[in-house]
Write a sequence for this structure.
């Protein structure tokens, strides 16, 4: 079953059109930006929320960046595997990803290569956006918000549990 953060934080009802921006220094390619756009779309399809990319990083509601190791927020990344990403509850909007992971960007993670540590970027993005919107973890194993994902796994479809949870908030 879905859960929320303590105090049930959410984006306010007057602020359902959210903007997101990528950390300017990251210089992500079009393919990577598309992965995030698709991940946001999963949630906008089932809520009144909209998500639009902006180039104004400082003014964006949601700020996405890849970092390695200690990056100044008290939650350092740990290299390959372990913590993959973290996102804060509303209305903070920070979404950080561990730049050290073997991210699979839009490819087929189930057949990805040599490295058994391949992690599907879109799957992690859909999960972290759930946190950005106010969802905690779910006890339903098939759900996007379940607190475990395996490498070489693609899990991007919201389940009825995820949809029920987000529709309580929005
Ligand atoms: N990062 C954890 C997560 O996003 C961070 C975290 C731990 C957390 N406890 C929390 C966030 C409690 C909110 C509330 O869950 S992670 C997965 C999953 C991670 C984990 O790097 O471990 C995904 C990132 F759920 F699959 F295991 C993305 Cl999809
Ligand atoms: Zn961080
Ligand atoms: Zn999580």
């Amino acid at each position: 079953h879905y859960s929320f953060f303590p105090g049930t934080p959410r984006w306010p009802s007057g602020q359902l059109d959210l903007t997101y921006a990528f950390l300017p220094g990251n210089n992500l390619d079009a393919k990577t930006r598309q992965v995030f756009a698709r991940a946001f779309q999963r949630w906008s399809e089932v809520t009144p929320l909209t998500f639009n990319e902006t180039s104004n990083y400082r003014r964006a509601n949601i700020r996405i960046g890849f970092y390695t190791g200690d990056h100044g927020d008290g939650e350092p990344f740990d290299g390959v595997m372990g913590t993959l990403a973290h996102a804060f509850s509303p209305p903070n909007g920070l979404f950080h990803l561990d730049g050290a992971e073997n991210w699979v960007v839009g490819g087929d993670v189930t057949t990805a290569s040599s490295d058994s540590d391949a992690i599907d970027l879109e799957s992690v993005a859909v999960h972290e956006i759930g946190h950005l919107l106010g969802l905690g973890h779910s006890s339903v194993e098939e759900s996007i918000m379940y607190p475990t994902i395996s490498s070489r796994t693609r899990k991007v479809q919201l389940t009825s549990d995820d949809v029920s949870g987000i529709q309580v908030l929005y």
